[in-house]
From TrEMBL:
Membrane-crossing residue ranges in chain numbering: 1165-1183
SUPFAM superfamilies: NHL repeat, Sialidases
Keywords for the protein's UniProt record, in alphabetical order: Membrane, Repeat, Signal, Transmembrane, Transmembrane helix
Lineage: Bacteria, Pseudomonadati, Verrucomicrobiota, Opitutia, Opitutales
Region (Disordered): 1142-1162
Name under which the protein is recorded: Ig-like domain-containing protein
CDD domains in the cross-refs: Sialidase_non-viral
Gene3D superfamilies: 2.120.10.10, 2.40.10.500, Immunoglobulins, TolB, C-terminal domain
Top-rank lineage group of the source organism: Bacteria
Residues annotated as signal peptide: 1-21
Claim: Nucleotidyltransferase is one of the keywords in the record: no
Length: 1189
């Protein structure tokens, strides 16, 4: 279709270069013509009907010093004598509007012009004898082409044997003239030499031979379609620039229309002698180069320009009269201007001429020169003129030499218009001849109703009105769907009724758009709008609405881009591939993206949809990332950023279920680089902890690397590889810190209290202390001797002393939003260092507590009246065996202790001394039974109402009875299955209860019969579960105390058990075991040792060895691991409330004179093996190890 005349005023620009007189059709100024023969091709077979075949070949052009143009061409075909060719030379004196024949050169063909020192030269192939024996020859004219020299020998124009190949544009560079010969060689001479002499010229060495092995190492997009060693690269052009030197560029003719058109780049040395070619990098995709193309370098712009024959999508499947697909190398009906800054990355600038008849019309074999701001072009043209009876047989078969001018070529741009036709909107480009069809405008979109209105706003947005309901759809200038709008913007109007076309302006410079309806190779320019593949930092790649389902785009080379955009409801995946040789042995590229704009900040934007970037992404400079509402981006590879990232994320009506940005691995490589996040669209309904960024793999990021702002106050947290946000809120619900207790100088000297309050951002904490008689005050650096973490969530109190007993602590939680929150207070309990290793205790009727301590070797008492602790017998830290009074007596690791109901005497199991001792209320110590009684290591004792003392002898695993008269008998031994019994109690009915420590059970011995039965636990099985006695489990149980009767009569009693290995206090009642104090382990595992006052299982103990009961039912525990005496009272609900006794120290009376026994420092002589066994058991309990038999 010819150009619509209604658009001429708008669309014709000066660069079209038409002359109404000389070029009425726009097909070019006719310079030379030979009539088309009456020939057709059917099925690729030539059928001659009449006439001779004479065709135009080898167009050449040059501008003379006086401003005139000269052009030349040869003739070929069966109607010529190709052994004695003819070239014609033409001249124009009016800027190419009209031409006149100046000279016919016989025996000469394929001539290329250049001018030097006002002399016109023509270099080509010459046969002086008309016998087909050609030499490369140079001719010169000193009268602007009117007359020419005749080559005669090596000193006068005859240069070398052979042929030059088709015409090209010689280059003047580096004080030499350069021309390509054939495929891959350069011919050059110094301008200062005699150019007519063969000796002045240098021919470069050829490239390596095209062997099968060499071709197999080429990149697969080239070698797979090259055709093996018979493949063709030929008709090379030559270009030269200061940045890249001299380069020879042959076309590559592939054996498949599916191949990506490429050129090869051969780099010539400065002296013209050698040629370098690296197949790893010296192939470049270039649209339309399966045919000969023209090329030159423009020094003013610093860019290379080429004229090629691009195959439009409308022409890629042209069928000849015999239903055969026309080969792409023969489709030459479209000519495009292309440019590059480096010969590797090419941009299509404009389709400058096009004809709908792809079979018979062609402009081809271009040579051109830069003429100021214009290109002056010579074309070998196939076109039916008014003088032709027949069409050219094929586009290849040229009947014309035509001249074309492309004005202001450096600023040239496509001129497109839209046309409503066939129920859709198509895009066209105006050219010098017919308008080029570029396909459907709306990519990936079908209109619901026939379009009946077109409009474009100043920002480039295109609007299309549909007849169905007057729906208005908006598109970007590429044709990507933007959405539906209710009305046009102010000042924008639709084309009038009946108007079917709209001239539109182009997308922004450097904008590149994916146009394939499915996935494909990024590498292939045919997948991109206007064949412009994005591969430089000057360009922005957009993946828009062309796809109709999820698609994968494979990236096989690393590219640096200025921007990357996604806009599609269907998911794109940019997958990593590699550019390999066809034999798979060499890799020439691996997909990766670097964003680095020439000006401004590079950008990555997801405007619609959920997309995946599965290639490495590097951001070397500050970059902008944005993700629209209800969209997401997954970087399923590594992200490396060396400068800050500005990340804009929009929220939709509901918060996203998953993070809008997911990254496989992230590395920050720049000091001070931040990820600055700006959130919009957040509402008050946003859930706390909404995810923003998730990192699924490794990273080196911390919370400090993120800065977050939003339309509502939010806080952010980075934990578990996830950045999440929460709406800001006032501190609330401060949890009360737990009371803390310890014995001065014990338990590592450290207690902690923990702060926890709600609020966003997470509150900061300030701890305060209240000392008796004072007011609350902040803990500061002045308190650092014993306090740390005073402004953190965990307050640590180090080595508290008894004078700090009763201090209270609380914290203030604040976060800058609203009023601070103040917690309830916790109390610090500090017990005196009175009992370094309490092993047994008992209470008298007045409530005085007597404590046996195995490390201090003493019996101490805590008066119920004054709450004072004092030594009743023994001297602290002095072991011995002697009887005596008060500190004059000696003990060695005293253990169990009980009061005789008969005389009120205190009986002590003096373990290492293997004896039972008696202590009066006045501190007089006597030995009831000694080593002669056979005791091995008495650990615990019980006394019945008759005065019989029962001994749990741990080392030899026996239960003994010591009668009031001192007679010792064995009640039960290892034969009954006992193992290291360490606790014993007796009830009013005479039943004995034994903690069978080594077997982790509680056993009973019947009075009279002395029958042993299992009361609770499972022999040999340690654990910590409550429940029925048979399924309950213990771990090295120790001290026992009975309250009432368990095994006879009403059986309404309780047995309290110090479950030493579990750090628990247990109760056996009515056949059931329950834990009344201490922290249980998980799933029946070991209990958790610690030091904490509290209720029930919130309290903590550490390896308690003994337990006693007061008259009022309170329990007292020798909390051995904590070096403390603990009290367990029961509240109204029956819950055990654990507290720590904090008695003050009474004066210690002086030691009486030596009583004659072993005293301080004596130590009792050598320790027996039984003692060491007992100490192993004790140490195992002390350090929380379970002693097993």
């Amino acid at each position: 279709m010819k150009r619509n005349t209604a658009l001429i005023v708008f669309l014709l620009f000066s660069f079209f270069g038409r002359s109404a007189a000389a070029d009425p059709t726009g097909a070019g100024v006719q310079v030379s013509h030979t009539p088309s023969p009456d020939i057709v091709y059917v099925g690729g077979i030539k059928i001659k009907r009449s006439g001779q075949e004479i065709y135009v070949a080898d167009p050449a052009i040059e501008k003379l010093a006086n401003g005139d143009y000269v052009m030349a061409h040869s003739l070929f075909g069966a109607g010529t004598n190709e052994d004695s060719p003819v070239s014609k030379i033409f001249r124009s004196t009016d800027d190419g509007k009209t031409w006149a024949l100046m000279k016919q050169l016989n025996g000469f063909q394929r001539g290329s012009f250049f001018v030097h020192d006002n002399v016109l030269y023509l270099i080509g192939s010459y046969t002086p004898n008309g016998n087909g024996s050609f030499s490369v020859a140079i001719l010169k004219s000193t009268d602007n082409g009117a007359t020419w020299s005749t080559p005669t020998d090596a000193n006068n124009g005859m240069l070398i044997s052979g042929n030059t190949g088709t015409t090209k544009t010689p280059q003047i560079y580096n004080n030499r003239v350069w021309i390509s010969l054939g495929t891959d060689r350069a011919y050059s001479a110094a301008l200062s030499s005699d150019l007519m002499k063969a000796s002045s010229w240098t021919r470069s060495a050829p490239t390596a031979a095209k062997t099968e092995a060499a071709i197999a190492k080429w990149p697969a997009p080239v070698s797979l379609y090259f055709g093996g060693t018979a493949g063709v690269w030929s008709e090379a052009q030559i270009v030269a620039s200061p940045a890249h030197g001299v380069t020879v560029m042959p076309k590559i003719q592939f054996n498949s229309p599916d191949a990506v058109p490429h050129i090869a780049l051969f780099h010539i040395s400065a002296d013209g002698k050698t040629m370098a070619f690296d197949p790893a990098k010296d192939f470049a995709p270039l649209t339309g180069t399966q045919k000969k193309f023209g090329a030159t370098y423009d020094p003013d712009s610093g860019r290379y320009y080429a004229l090629t024959n691009t195959v439009l999508p409308a022409d890629k499947d042209v069928i000849d009269p015999n239903s055969q697909r026309v080969k792409h190398e023969l489709i030459r009906n479209t000519a495009t201007l292309i440019s590059s800054g480096d010969l590797y990355h090419w941009d299509v600038e404009k389709i400058f001429i096009h004809a709908r008849d792809a079979e018979h019309t062609a402009w081809q074999y271009f040579t051109f020169i830069v003429d100021g701001n214009d290109l002056a072009i010579a074309s070998r043209t196939a076109f039916k003129t008014a003088d032709d009876q027949y069409k050219p047989p094929r586009g290849h078969d040229s009947n014309l030499l035509t001249f074309h001018r492309l004005e202001n070529f450096r600023a040239i741009a496509p001129t497109h218009y839209l046309k409503i036709e066939g129920g859709t909107v198509n895009r066209y480009e105006t050219t010098h001849y017919e308008d080029a069809p570029l396909g459907r405008f709306a990519v990936g979109h079908a209109f619901a109703g026939t379009p009946n209105g077109l409009a474009q706003a100043a920002d480039g947005t295109v609007y299309v009105r549909e007849s169905s309901g007057g729906i208005i759809k908006s598109f970007d200038a590429h044709g990507n769907v933007l959405g539906q709008v209710p009305a046009l913007p102010a000042g924008v109007v639709f084309t009038g009724p009946g108007t079917e076309t709209l001239a539109i302006f182009q997308p922004p410079s450097g904008s590149r758009n994916w146009t394939s309806a499915a996935g494909g190779d990024w590498y292939d320019p045919r997948n991109w709008y206007y064949w412009n593949r994005p591969d430089t930092e000057l360009e922005a790649a957009t993946f828009g609405t062309s796809i109709t389902a999820a698609a994968t785009v494979t990236l096989v080379q690393p590219y640096t881009l200025g921007a990357l955009h996604f806009r599609s409801p269907h998911a794109y995946t940019i997958a990593q591939g590699s550019l390999k040789s066809s034999d798979g042995t060499a890799t020439y590229g691996i997909g990766a993206i670097t964003l680095k704009a020439v000006s401004g900040r590079p950008a990555l934007a997801v405007r619609q949809g959920r997309h995946t970037l599965a290639v490495p992404l590097t951001l070397p400079v500050e970059s902008d990332l944005s993700i629209a509402a209800d969209s997401a981006l997954t970087i399923d590879h590594t992200l490396v950023f060396q400068a800050s990232i500005n990340l804009d994320i929009a929220f939709g009506a509901t918060a996203p279920a998953s993070a809008p940005l997911t990254i496989k691995a992230a590395t920050k490589n720049g000091a001070g680089a931040l990820i600055r996040i700006n959130l919009t669209g957040i509402t008050a309904a946003m859930p706390a902890g909404t995810k923003i960024i998730t990192i699924t793999g490794g990273h080196n990021l911390a919370a400090a690397d993120f800065a977050v702002s939003a339309n509502l106050p939010v806080t952010h947290a980075f934990a578990n590889n996830t950045l999440s946000i929460t709406l800001a809120s006032t501190p609330a619900n401060p949890a009360a810190p737990s009371n803390a207790a310890m014995t001065e100088g014990h338990h590592a000297g450290v207690v902690t209290m923990t702060a926890s309050a709600q609020g966003s951002p997470a509150p900061a904490y300030q701890w305060q202390v209240l000392k008796p008689g004072g007011a609350w005050q902040n803990l500061t650096a002045a308190d650092a001797a014993r306090h740390s973490g005073m402004t953190t969530a965990v307050l640590t109190i180090t080595n508290p002393v008894f004078s700090m007993n009763g201090w209270q602590y609380r914290y203030i939680a604040s976060n800058g939003f609203g009023d601070p929150a103040i917690s309830a207070a916790a109390t610090l309990t500090v017990a005196p260092d009175a009992f370094p290793y309490p092993t047994g205790l008992v209470l008298d009727a007045s409530g005085t507590i007597y404590v046996a301590d195995a490390i201090s070797h003493t019996i101490q008492k805590i008066s119920s009246r004054h709450n004072e602790v004092s030594i009743l017998a023994g001297l602290s830290d002095q072991a011995g065996t002697g009887d005596g009074t008060g500190t004059g007596a000696r003990f060695d690791r005293p253990q169990g202790i009980k009061i005789s109901p008969r005389d009120g005497g205190i009986h002590v199991a003096d373990a290492t001394n293997k004896s039972i001792r008696r202590v009066t209320a006045a501190g007089v110590v006597t030995t009831l039974t000694g080593t002669s009684a056979g005791l091995a290591s008495p650990r615990a004792i019980a006394i019945d109402n008759d005065g019989n003392t029962y001994v749990a002898d741990a080392v030899d695993s026996r239960i003994r009875m010591v009668a009031p008269d001192g007679t010792v008998s064995v009640i039960a031994d290892a034969g009954a299955g006992f193992s290291a019994p360490s606790g014993i109690a007796v009830d009013a009915a005479g039943w004995l209860y034994v903690a069978d420590t080594g077997r982790h059970t509680i056993r009973a011995i019947a009075p009279g019969t002395r029958e042993v039965t299992l009361l609770a636990g499972a022999s040999g099985t340690a654990g910590g579960t409550d429940g029925p006695a048979s399924s309950a489990r213990f771990r090295s149980p120790g001290g026992l105390v009975v309250d009432g009767v368990l095994c006879s009569g009403a059986r309404d009693g309780s047995l309290y058990i110090a479950d030493t290995g579990n750090s628990l206090i247990r109760e056996l009642i009515s056949g059931t075991v329950r834990t009344i104090a201490g922290r249980l382990g998980t799933d029946g595992g070991a209990g958790v040792p610690g030091y904490r006052d509290g209720t029930g299982t919130a309290a903590m103990l550490d390896s308690p060895l003994d337990i006693a009961i007061a008259a009022n039912g309170d329990l007292y525990v020798a909390d051995t691991g904590n070096a403390a005496i603990r009290r367990i009272a029961f509240d109204d609900g029956g819950q055990a409330v654990v507290s720590t006794l904090t008695p003050s120290s009474a004066a210690v009376p002086p030691a009486p004179p030596d009583s004659g026994g072993e005293t301080a420092g004596g130590g009792g002589g050598a320790h027996s093996a039984c003692f060491f066994m007992m100490m192993i058991v004790a140490a195992a309990v002390r350090y929380r190890h379970v002693w097993r038999r």
